[in-house]
Amino acid sequence: MNKETARSLFMDYLYDELEQDQRNELEQFLSQNPEVKKELDELSDVRSMIAHLPVQDPEKQLVMAEPDQAGFQEWWNDFVDGLLPRKGFARAGFAIASLLVVFVVLGAFTKLNISVNDGGFSLAFGEKQEIIQQGFTPQQVEMLLQQVREDNAVMISDAVQSAQQQQENELEKTLVNFADYIEQQRQSDLQMISSGLYDMEETYYDRFRQTDQVLGELIQTVSTGN
Amino acid sequence: MEDAQLVHDFRGGNHQAFNKLVTRWQDRIHHFAYRFFASSDDAAEITQKTFIKAYHKLDTLDDVNKFGSWLYTIANNLCLDELKRVGRKRATSYETLKVAPQTDTATPADGMVLRNEGLVLLHKALLQLPVDQRVVVIMKEYEGLTFREIAEILDEPENTVKSRLYYGLSALKKTFDSWNINKEVFDYE
User: H or E element: which one contains A117?
Assistant: First the structure.
């Protein structure tokens, strides 16, 4: 071993990663070469010094992984991808067949009943039940008819009476209006006659006065001429 | 429960398994990033990014038994990316390190002051190392990884890793000598 070889083993020796036989060989060499041992001791002192370097711990957990919210969705997608064929037509056919199976199974559980008759298309769930139609007896029908007739008679009587009363009221109202009209007409005629008589009286009075005046003037003329 | 089993559980849809991995590993990743940048904020950011990336890429992990190494690889790459992104600013970030202030009630003691200053200088010295050496020193000295594990994480030969560690420790030795710092400074309790 020479000095360079010894120095190449320094790091392994300092950090205790040297094989035992090499360690023994190096230590023997160092015991015979104090200047090389001094170099090693100086490096060891540096190690002991930098070992005092302080350090700080983080105050909290700096990173936190949150669970994926879409976990079920991813699981379902994986499940569907693994279940369904990859090819397009096969995938579509598989999906249709699955839907048919689901439809049949659900129909069996729910006792689905589909029928087409003269009445149209019908879709029902559960047990099919016969339609039981319950009618009235002849006596009940007769009673119902009688009741209806009586009700109708009462209703018609009320209606006729109401119409008659309304008609009478209307007639009375018309007569009153007519009487009022006649009275007004009569008053108007009387006023016209009175006014005519008055005018005629005025006219005759004026004519008598003119006649008297002409006669007076004539008499005066004749007397003056004589 | 082993990491591998938790990885399997997570791949099977168990998100709580990933939370257990976070709980188990976040301190170590945070320590790694903190020593890399000497900043709690940067360390927390790198730690978060590391686990977010792990969450999205865990399906690509070939050997589930190497989850830890794989996680360190992610964290290391993120640290290097961050360093490239703000390289100049990061290169001088150690200047923001301050000596821990002494409280009024504390008895002034020269030894304690020297120790606090020494601790700050320790981080400064570490940040002054070239990045490839700094990463190896942190992974080996503080994370306790084997040379083989570090070689896998960095995708480098083991001898390269040992060489970087050797030169890293030697550089620290020179730095401490230039600052007149020795191990007695840290013996004060």
Answer: strand A113-117
